[in-house]
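In this section we walk through a basic example: taking a raw amino acid sequence and producing a predicted 3D structure, encoded as discrete structure tokens. The instruction is simple. Fold the sequence below.
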Amino acid sequence: MIQYRRNFLPGGTFFFTVPLVDRNSCLLVDQIDALRDATRHTRSSQPFTIDAVVILPDHLHAIMTLPDRDADYSSRWSLIKRRFTDAAMKSGTTVTRRANGQPALWQRRFWEHTIRDEQDFERHVDYIHFNPVRHGSVARVCDWPHSSFHSYVRHGVLPQDWGGDVSQEKGNFGERRW
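The resulting token sequence is shown next.
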């Protein structure tokens, strides 16, 4: 069996990618309120700060900072996933089961990266906010509703037109030419 190595840094800041099993699903945006509730309830019992987040139909990206002397992000994600899954099933969403009978809504693992410094933090915030454009969901960052980008604009950290308008862009953006 593969040994996964995670960096558990008390009080650390981490970037996460957390996907559903069905990468063609729209469940996360269709039931965004259930995801918000699951996150809110988890945060009330096991505090953490969400520094940036984007919810796409089939996965989410987030930057989370843990309290001092606490490095247990895995249990937080486990609770968020479980609470969301329970809410989805209660709403009538059909959820397949694994061989052991457990719901198979989320991929078992998530991708984690420890934020090293301010530049790394800013790079990952930019990645999070631009992700809906990268996936072709919108032409402008400001058009995706399920993103902390809007909070960054309200607090004057980023301008409303940050990221531009990819539908208006022309030219070579580093694509490989064959």
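Looking at the output, two observations stand out. Helices lie at 27-30, 32-45, 73-90, 118-134, 149-154. Residues 73-90 form the longest helix (18 residues). In the next section we compare this with other chains.
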